[in-house]
Amino acid sequence: MIAKLLATQRAVALACAVAAVCLPIAVRLITGAPGALVHVRWVASVDVDARQRLETRFRLADGESLGGSTWRYDLIDPSPDNIRALVLDPAVEDTHQLDRVRFALDGAERTARRGQISSGGTLVAAADGVAVALMSFVALLALVALWHSVSTRDRWAGQRALVLRAEDRLLRAESELRPYILLGILGVAVYAVSLGYPPTNGDDLSYLVLAESIDNPLSYFIQNHGIGATYRPLLQASLWFVYQAFGVWALPNQFITLVLHLINVCLLYRIVQRAQSDKTIAWLFAAVFMVSNYTFMAATWVSDRPMALTGLFLLLLVDHLSQHGHTSGHTSGPSVRVAAIAAFSVLALMSKESGLVVPVVGLLFALLLGRAAHLTLRHRLNIAIATMSIVGFYMVFRVLIFGSGYASYTQDGVMFLGLIRYDDSADLPQLLRYLNYAENVVKNVLAPVLPVFDGVGSLLTGRSLLVYLPILASTALLFGLAARHRLTRLQLMALMIILVNAVTHYALFRDRLHYMSHAAFCLFVATSPFLGNTQDNRRATVAVKALAVIMLMGGILWTSGMIDYSMQVRRREFGMLPTEGLERYGQVVEEVLSRYR
């Protein structure tokens, strides 16, 4: 059996090694060479229309005027033929960072690969991430094969026996670990580029300034060190420790943020696969949660790490509650522990204001579902008292550290589906302000199941609607299919989360605030009793899988495009740091410029 297994491992290792070598090369050939930042000075006689035609002809993108007739561009096609045509054109007076003799780049900063495919840089980074993962897997298989080839002399017998026992356990657990490994590989492939973001975002820099100025990270837990009336000590303490260890290097923080998101993805899969006999459905909806316009920010933006933290404690709560009464009849699973619910609630509130969702969901579970979960009246009362006490103490604590602005939140937005725009809802007349709150709640409820709104709450129209139509239709159909039968306890909990999240964020509408709601939507659909491997449900199950694949593919394409766009924004922000960032952020900007130049 071992010999047969080793033969299979060698074949798999060879295939993975070949794929790891060929995939990055093939993707680079398909996407073309990376672009480059160059300067072009046009002759004085070139007007705006002529310049735009020349920019299109020579594939000069993202033009930025540097004064006079000099412009900075992203040269998307840096081939010798294109550079020769550019520098020899009579409309071009001079160029910089181009060798005018060899018709090649001369010290130019390279940019994303957009020559053949708009998201070429993202595809290359994803291919590199997959290649690294494949080579790591090959190395693991090689170590196992090497161990089996080691001499069986007595001095190796004990260690060899231990390894063989561990290998035997690993092989038995392989079927359970495989979905988590595949989710991790997909997540790294999609989000790998975000690990290279420089720390140029304003909120990220503000948190770094705090990390540089604070001596004791424990003060984050008892004082107002946030941006506005925000209490997020878990984020700030983690940034403080990373800053002390690595300075302004962004990679550790980006890595922590991405890992938190992937942990949440795996938690969602763990919850669903206990209730869903078809593991493919569980995996697909965990993947749909992973790559979405609702979860993209929490996976890539360090300042939005609190949303991933809040999602972590919410999913831990759902995981804990869903295990109680999982077996049939009145024989319950592990006991619901008040201490666990309290701990998840406190940690969620230390993550972000959105953490209110966690204790409220715990309270609603005790009041509405506790009896069905075979909890005693005393047990339900203990949960209710604990969660209400935590929320009450939290509100009093906010009043103590923030004063009268304990519930204030300054943010721009839209009303009446985009007809009215405002800079701050506090400036609206009282009637309009309350109407705005009601509209936000309604949109927050609808967005996870009928995503017809853009990032700030306006209705999708025109091209945006057409591009997003496959995901919109798939989402609505999936929710309709999952709601056809009597709802399970997990589905009821999912609806609770969507409703509580909508009310908690009554003050505004943003895509990134639906992180927990999107997890709840995936939980609602994936745990429907309408799905499964039975003969009666087979057609519906196939349809749901097809719709989930559409959502997943759409989410990957959207996320890849947004990561590519965000990298371009970060690079522009980095270029403005010397002129606009030094005065505002001081020493931190100097450290960023020193590290990333």
Distance between the termini: 56 Å
What is the element string, with H for helices and E for strands? Answer: HEHEEHEEEHHHHHHHHHHHEEHHHHHH
Spatial order of strands in the largest sheet: 2-3-1-4
Gross morphology: globular
What percent of residues are in strands?
5-15%
Work out the count of structural domains: 3
Q: Count helical runs.
A: 20
The tally of beta strands, per DSSP, is: 8
Whole-number mean pLDDT:
83
Give the helix/strand class: mainly alpha
Largest sheet: 4 strands, antiparallel
Helix content: 55-70%
Describe the secondary-structure layout.
Layout (H helix, E strand, L loop, with lengths): L1 H30 L4 E7 L5 H10 L2 E6 L4 E6 L4 H9 L3 E5 L1 E2 L4 E2 L14 H30 L4 H38 L10 H12 L19 H14 L4 H25 L3 H12 L5 H5 L4 H19 L14 H14 L5 H13 L7 H26 L10 E3 L4 E3 L7 H17 L15 H21 L6 H16 L10 H12 L11 H48 L1 H10 L1
Helix pairs in contact: 1-4, 4-5, 5-8, 5-9, 6-7, 8-9, 8-11, 9-18, 9-19, 11-12, 11-13, 12-13, 12-14, 13-14, 13-17, 15-17, 16-18, 16-19, 17-18, 19-20
Question: Can you offer a commentary on this structure?
Answer:
The protein is mainly alpha-helical. The protein folds into three domains: 1-31 and 131-151; 35-105, Alpha-Beta Plaits; 202-580, no CATH class. Helix content is 64%, strand content 6%. The protein has helices at residues 2-31, 48-57, 80-88, 120-149, 154-191, 202-213, 233-246, 251-275, 279-290, 296-300, 305-323, 338-351, 357-369, 377-402, 430-446, 462-482, 489-504, 515-526, 538-585, 587-596, and strands at residues 36-42, 60-65, 70-75, 92-96, 98-99, 104-105, 413-415, 420-422. The strands form three sheets. Strands 2-3-1-4 form a four-stranded antiparallel sheet, covered by helices on one side. Strand 7 and strand 8 (420-422) form a beta hairpin. Helix 4 (120-149) runs antiparallel to helix 5, helix 6 crosses helix 7 (233-246) and helix 9 (279-290) packs parallel to helix 19 (538-585). The longest helix is centred in the last third of the chain and has 48 residues, at 538-585. The termini are far apart.
